[in-house]
Design brief:
Elements: H1 20-27, E1 69-75, E2 82-85, E3 88-95, E4 98-104, E5 112-119, E6 125-132, E7 139-142, H2 153-170, E8 190-191, E9 198-201, E10 204-205, E11 212-215, E12 221-223, E13 228-236, E14 240-248, E15 251-261, E16 268-269, E17 274-278, E18 288-295, E19 298-300
Parallel strand pairs: 7-9
Antiparallel strand pairs: 1-4, 2-3, 2-5, 3-4, 5-6, 8-11, 9-10, 11-18, 12-17, 13-14, 13-16, 14-15, 15-17, 15-18, 18-19
Length: 319
């Protein structure tokens, strides 16, 4: 059985451009997508040319590819520099002896050399090259009934309302720095390595999967992956019952398809604190947790924030 969460489902009315509205949300990483199939190993990525000095805050794994995280050494400065990529503020960790930029790279980023702009307290500006390597994520091609990928007029209207709200949530950026940039797996279970996997339905491409699915029975506890503040909860058409946490400085996590939400907006939670339970709400056919990590408004591979990132591991999605 295949799950079509994140894609338009049964309905009698097609939008004039099927999938266009959905593609926008997928591009922005606002939807969870459950993807079935065996995944091919990920591409090998060149290591950073230089590394920052040891820091109190543990950093995610460096993988400078679309959907990855780049760790860029900024050197010593008396005060924390302000860093931007395409005018988007970038998280900067460290201390005056060694600052480090932690850059989320969008899944739709083109390989090549980009430019980080670092503004220093003395008014000087440094421009630093950021090399993004190519990566080939797995693909899956399916032929399905047209009704499986189209929205009814009613469902499309609901989706559009929710999309606008979720875009606001995803744009959240608070000033505090995260206390850690390493995370806990939010529920026990088999991790899929489906991040970046692209599906083709009836020959039509859909945007890549922008999170990690973890197979677990309904009712299994879901915990906060890192300390944070609850910035949104809701029951959404595609994602079902969902929680968003803000960890500071543009680092957010999203937990989807929950059976239960045990927190409220404004609650401050610790890493490992129970926030809900695994379920099968939204557009899914089986219980599992979809977990996403957003950094500087880019959905990035959650595995890079775990102690055992397992890049390119093989696995099957929850059914």
């Amino acid at each position: 059985m295949t799950s079509f969460v994140g894609f338009p489902g049964p309905g009698r009315v097609r939008s004039p451009e099927p999938g266009r509205a959905l593609a926008r949300a997928l591009r922005d990483g606002l939807l969870a997508i459950t993807l079935a199939g065996v995944l091919a190993p990920g591409a090998t990525v060149r290591a950073a040319e230089s590394a920052a000095s040891p820091e109190a805050v543990r950093l995610p794994c460096h993988r400078s590819v679309p959907g990855g995280v780049a760790i860029v050494a900024l050197g010593a400065q008396p005060a924390r520099p302000r860093v931007f990529l395409d005018d988007e503020p970038i998280l900067v960790s460290g201390d005056p002896g060694a600052w480090t930029a932690v850059v989320g790279i969008r899944l739709d980023a083109q390989p090549g050399v980009r430019e980080l702009v670092a503004e220093h307290a003395d008014g000087s500006v440094a421009r630093l090259p950021l090399e993004i390597a190519a990566v080939r994520y797995s693909e899956q091609r399916l032929r399905v009934a047209p009704g499986k990928v189209d929205l009814s007029a009613k469902d499309l209207a609901r989706y559009e309302r929710e999309r606008a709200h979720l875009a606001q949530v995803a744009a959240t950026r608070s000033d505090p720095l995260p206390t850690t940039l390493r995370m806990l797996q939010p529920t026990p279970g088999r991790r899929s390595s489906s991040f970046g996997l692209r599906r083709f339905f009836n020959g039509q491409p859909r945007n890549p999967h922008s999170g990690m699915d973890i197979a677990a029975p309904t009712g299994t506890a879901v915990v906060a992956a890192a300390p944070g503040r609850v910035i949104d909860t809701g029951d959404y058409f595609f994602n079902g019952r969902t929680i968003w946490l803000d960890h500071g400085s543009g680092l957010l996590t999203m937990y989807c398809h929950l059976d239960e939400i045990a927190v409220r907006v404004g609650d401050v939670v610790d890493a490992g604190q129970r926030i809900g339970a695994v379920g099968a709400t939204g557009r899914v056919t089986g219980a599992h947790l979809h977990w996403s990590v957003s950094l500087n408004r880019a959905m990035v591979d959650p595995a890079l924030f775990l102690d055992e990132p397992q890049p390119g591991a093989r696995g099957r999605e929850p059914r």
